UniProtKB/TrEMBL annotation:
It comes from the Eukaryota. Residues 628-644 have a biased composition (Polar residues). Residues 361-432, 456-499, 593-699, 756-790 are annotated as: Disordered. Residues 51-361 form the Kinesin motor domain. Residues 386-402, 418-432, 684-697 have a biased composition (Basic and acidic residues). This is Kinesin-like protein. The lineage of its organism: Eukaryota, Sar, Alveolata, Dinophyceae, Suessiales. It comes from Effrenium voratum. One of its GO terms (biological process) is microtubule depolymerization.
Length: 790
């Protein structure tokens, strides 16, 4: 294969090189097509029922790409037609031809189309739906460097303007998915957990969600989060997004919550582009591609009307579950971005083929071979090149070229992008820098949200009833592919009030005092697990994260109010649970009222004991508590109203003020004296957890070391090893290990003996460090022949 870089004409050049070498011929063919396009192949028409709108956008070709010898290999023709001109050379390296790949989508935006047109044709409908209390998703998909972030940025701006055309209650959260981890970008990029709600949807919880009042506030927070996003220099461009960014905007409209999810996916990668990447970048790339594959598969399954959609296989698909639900309650638009550069032809084809799959246009595989199919291909032959002439020119060029200077001995220079560092390690500093630039009122709201342990709205979402209720109330849905209607004033639907009421009931049952909803198997299971814990202790069973998560979600809030256990770390969680039970045994009486659904068939839940007024409750055990108000009353954990003071995590306060006397390792000390406990921010709690884990690790290590340090002389060890070898038993591997250890001990002894003898011979009196006892000789193990020298 030839070199992909430009240089003298070579035989057996790769595709990219031959495209550059014969650029004039290929470019002329593409130009001819633009002037007189072939007739469009039969378009895919059954678009109405698929529920996913797929649009494409081509970015302009950059001048540096033209200077490098590339040409524009993509043509957008309305309506929704996009053609990729794949310039090829026959294997005989003489004949040239061009495959014109013709694709049809809902919209195809060429380079001449501005951000306004793109917004109108893609996101506007979804934004309108959100304003009417529905939910929708816009996602950017495509090769790295093809314009996803550029397009998404313009959508943020235009959506912000549209949302605030009339005054509304709007909140925003911004998370990043990096591999399998989720990070809260409005909270310095700290990790956050994903929690499954009652209706099966998955939400980050607790997660910073900030109220915004103007478009500029919304954009400022999105900007802050975007700056912290994991970017790295790649082979394609310097600030490539290495993570998926999910911006969620929640809009209140007449008691119904609409949501708008804007997803800027990480760029898909090609082997050629990551050829110079280090191991870390390649691993990132593999994870990115895996999550994109999972996403495509789910969208394809939805588009093809599959009954089962495997959305649990990846964090990304879990978070975007709404997009795959049948029934059209959640509208989704995918914008596939493509680069026009001839060097990216394979990438662009790949993106468009995958977009076809997402659009439900067939199953993807070509009839012959394992490559993805999609699009209609028209082959155009472009004649033959004059090999003799080219060879002559090449020789001439080589003659004229200056002698290459000797570069021997110099290490090959590192690709520029490898020396650039990822920004993930600098997040806290970046956050401090950019928070300072925010308006004081927004900064204050952000700070308050960071100190709260989730919001009442987030708890409401987690307690949202399953979709059965929705299916009983079929709503008139707009046609998925209909042009964007004029914004209509939202009419409060009578169903909304009923739904809100149902949510309220469930919210109280989960987060306030009611013991269980009899029909919920999760709650039953949580209570059952907790009973096992009480009766058999931590050894009662092998505790899995999910068991502890259920206890954390259903039992702990009910019995212990504001306390939470760290279910992500089972050992810590069990410690915390033990502590909670030990400190408040009287609260376990409430458990007597809870009956599993099998025993209490109908929703006549036993009247839960009225919760004691917050001020009368005993102080909460555990490290997570509500902050004490000056008069001693704790803030209610489960207050759903927004008028209430923000819900706070245990002992949270102003994170910027870290009291000097606080010891970071004082988790236990804190729980021992809650009143004197200083405020702790989210990051401090995480740090304290890490320290507790580290301490536990150290203790375990000390224990293990103490066990190992059994005093045993070398002779005793040799005797014991010989006895074990003679005794047989154990595997052959174990026996080989014993023999090796025995040989090494004997060899050491021999060395020491020789040394002592040599010193004695030299007339020195050397006290042997280890008293040398007569060595027991084993019949089975012969000594090395040199042993006789001792
Ligand atoms: N339609 C467009 N018009 C003008 N410039 C564009 C357009 N699309 C993208 N660009 C420019 O191309 C470059 C790469 O775009 P962008 O960062 O949006 O790519 P990306 O697909 O998000 O890449 P990655 O996935 O690696 O983050 C940027 O400099 C951007 O300004």
């Amino acid at each position: 294969m030839g070199n992909a870089e430009s240089g003298p004409i070579v035989r057996n050049a790769d595709k990219r090189t031959s495209r550059r070498e014969h650029r004039a011929i290929f470019e002329a063919a593409a130009q001819r097509f633009r002037l007189a396009p072939f007739e469009a192949p039969e378009r895919f028409t059954a678009a109405q029922s698929r529920g996913v709108r797929v649009c494409v956008r081509k970015r302009p070709i950059f001048s540096h790409e033209l200077e490098q010898g590339e040409f524009d290999a993509v043509t957008c023709l309305e309506p929704g037609r996009i053609v990729v001109h794949d310039a090829r050379m026959h294997p005989d390296m003489v004949k040239l031809f061009m495959n014109h790949h013709d694709f049809g989508f809902d919209e195809a935006f060429g380079e001449q189309m501005g951000n306004f047109e793109v917004y109108q044709g893609t996101a506007r409908q979804i934004v309108q739906n959100a304003l009417e209390g529905k939910s929708g998703t816009v996602m950017m998909y495509g090769q790295t460097g093809s314009g996803k972030t550029y397009t998404m940025r313009s959508i943020y701006e235009q959506a912000a303007d549209e949302i605030f055309q009339s005054p509304r209650s709007v909140t925003v959260s911004f998370i990043e998915l990096f591999g399998e981890s989720c990070f809260d970008m409005l909270n310095q990029g700290v990790p956050c957990q994903l929690t499954t709600a009652q209706d099966g949807s998955v939400h980050p919880f607790p997660c910073v969600e900030v109220e915004v009042q103007t478009p500029s506030e919304l954009l400022a927070l999105i900007d802050l989060a975007g700056r912290l996003r994991a970017t790295a220099a790649t082979g394609v461009h310097d600030q490539s997004s290495r993570s998926h960014a999910l911006c969620r905007v929640f809009v209140d409209s007449d008691g119904e919550e609409g949501s708008l999810t804007l997803v800027d996916l990480a760029g898909s990668e090609h082997r050629i582009d990551n050829a110079e990447h280090n191991a870390e970048r390649r691993k990132e790339g593999a994870k990115i591609n895996a999550s994109l594959a999972a996403l495509k598969e789910c969208i394809r399954a939805r588009a093809s009307g599959a009954k089962f959609i495997a959305f649990r296989q990846n964090r990304l698909t879990q978070l975007l579950r709404g997009c795959f639900l049948p029934g059209g309650h959640h509208e989704t638009v995918v914008v596939a971005t493509v680069s026009p550069s001839s060097k990216d032809t394979e990438h662009s084809l790949n993106t468009l083929r995958h977009a076809c799959i997402m659009d439900g246009q067939g199953q993807g595989k070509q009839e012959k071979g394992s490559h993805l199919g999609g699009g209609a291909v028209t082959k155009e032959t472009l004649g033959e090149i004059d090999v003799t002439k080219i060879a002559r020119e090449r020789r001439q060029k080589q003659k004229e070229a200056p002698e290459p200077t000797a570069e021997w001995g110099k290490p090959p220079s590192k690709p520029a992008h490898q020396s650039k560092e990822s920004n993930t390690s600098r997040r806290a500093a970046l956050d401090r820098k950019y928070v300072r630039l925010l308006e004081p009122s927004v900064a204050q709201r952000l700070q308050d949200a960071r100190e709260a342990w989730g919001t009442a709205k987030q708890r409401m979402r987690l307690a949202r009833p399953p979709a059965v209720e929705e299916s009983q109330e079929p709503e008139a849905k707009p046609e998925p592919r209909a042009p964007a209607p004029e914004p209509a004033a939202p009419v409060p639907a009578p169903a909304n009030a009923a739904r809100a009421e149902a949510r309220e009931v469930i919210f109280h049952s989960v987060f306030q005092q009611a013991p269980v909803e009899p029909q919920d198997p999760d709650k039953d299971r949580a209570i059952e697990l907790f009973r096992t814990f009480l009766s058999q202790g931590r050894e009662g069973q092998n505790w899995r994260k999910n068991d502890l998560r259920l206890i954390n979600l259903f039992v702990v809030p009910w019995l212990f109010g504001e306390a939470r256990i760290d279910w992500n770390h089972p050992v810590l969680a069990l410690d915390e649970l033990e502590q909670l039970v030990k400190e408040s045994p009287e609260r376990l009486k409430l458990l007597g009222n809870a009956k599993p659904s099998a025993q209490s068939p109908k929703p006549a839940p036993p009247a839960p004991p009225a919760p004691a007024p917050a001020s009368a409750r005993p102080p909460l055990p555990g490290r997570l508590r509500s902050p004490e108000t000056p008069n001693g009353a704790g803030t209610s954990w489960s207050t759903p109203s927004n008028d209430q003071p923000p819900l706070r995590r245990a002992g949270t306060g102003d994170v910027r003020r870290k009291p000097a006397e606080e010891s970071p390792t004082s988790r236990n000390a804190r729980s021992a004296s809650p009143a004197s406990r200083p405020p702790a921010s989210h990051s401090e709690v995480i740090r304290a957890r890490r320290e507790a884990m580290e301490q536990a690790r150290q203790e375990a290590l000390q224990k293990a070391l103490a066990k190992k340090a059994v005093p045993q002389s070398r002779e005793e060890e040799i005797a014991s090893l010989e006895a074990q070898i003679l005794g047989g038993g154990g595997s052959s591997y174990a026996a080989a290990g014993l023999k090796r250890r025995l040989q090494s001990l004997k060899a050491t002894m021999l060395r020491e003996e020789k040394l002592a003898a040599a010193k004695a011979a030299a007339g020195q009196r050397v006290a042997s460090p280890v008293p040398v006892a007569p060595r027991p000789r084993s019949g089975s193990l012969s000594r090395p022949s040199s042993a006789g020298a001792g």
